[in-house]
Design brief:
Elements: E1 3-7, E2 10-13, E3 18-25, E4 32-39, E5 46-51, E6 57-59, E7 67-72, E8 77-82, E9 91-101, E10 115-116, E11 120-125
Parallel strand pairs: 2-11
Antiparallel strand pairs: 1-3, 3-8, 4-5, 4-9, 5-6, 7-8, 9-10, 9-11
């Protein structure tokens, strides 16, 4: 059974930083694409960042230059470094993993992901 567990969320002031981590079990992440999404109250879950198994990355325009996605295959984790945080970054953040292996296509849409974490709250105060 595949399980994804996020950690590292919390409350931070605008301009601050957080590092989210997502630990996977039941599948090795080394051959998979991984992503981060977020959902603010009243909004749909939106794409934030993705990384392929070859470490190609893609970011939403709203976070480009501020957030960095990375993977650690030895620890079976994916991380999201959040810098220069803004109040509009406040949301529940979800990590996700595809079931397809060895794909070089960056999955930007929710249906592309088979596995999801439970989500973790990030709150940015002004």
């Amino acid at each position: 059974q595949v399980q994804l567990v996020e950690s590292g969320g919390g409350l931070v002031q605008a301009g601050g930083s957080l590092r989210l981590s997502c630990a996977a079990s039941g599948r090795a992440v080394s051959t998979k694409a991984l992503g981060w999404f977020r959902q603010a109250p009243g909004n749909e879950r939106e794409f934030v960042a993705a990384i392929t198994y070859t470490d190609t990355t893609r970011y939403a325009d709203s976070v480009k230059g501020r957030f960095t996605i990375s993977r650690d295959n030895t620890k079976n984790t994916v991380a999201l470094q959040l810098n220069s945080l803004k109040p509009e970054d406040t949301a529940v953040y979800y990590c996700a993993m595809t079931s397809t292996s060895y794909s070089v296509t960056l999955p930007l849409q929710r249906p592309s992901y088979a596995y999801w974490g439970q989500g973790i709250q990030v709150t940015v105060s002004s």
